[in-house]
What we know:
Layout: E1 2-3, E2 6-9, E3 12-15, E4 20-21, E5 27-33, E6 36-38, E7 44-45, E8 53-56, E9 68-73, E10 78-84
Antiparallel strand pairs: 1-4, 2-3, 3-8, 5-6, 5-7, 5-9, 9-10
Amino acid sequence: MTTGHAELSGSRVVLQRDFTFDGAPDARIGLGRNGRYDPNTDLGALKKLKGQQSYRLRGGIDVSKYNEVYVWCRKFNVPLGVAKLGG
């Protein structure tokens, strides 16, 4: 189970203080749009299971194309949590 909020702050994706995740293998942070995760936006491994944390956006990622932040299981290619951006 994944709960909490995420936002874009400058060149970072920030998981807010209310973020919690109960764990899974190979959890990654990335972006998507309208229910579709984009593996080209992988921002790295989830740093911790609870609390605020941030992930730097790599150059070339056009954030205007995305409206969701994902916790994604790369090993099994499934979403573990999704947060809407800007709404």
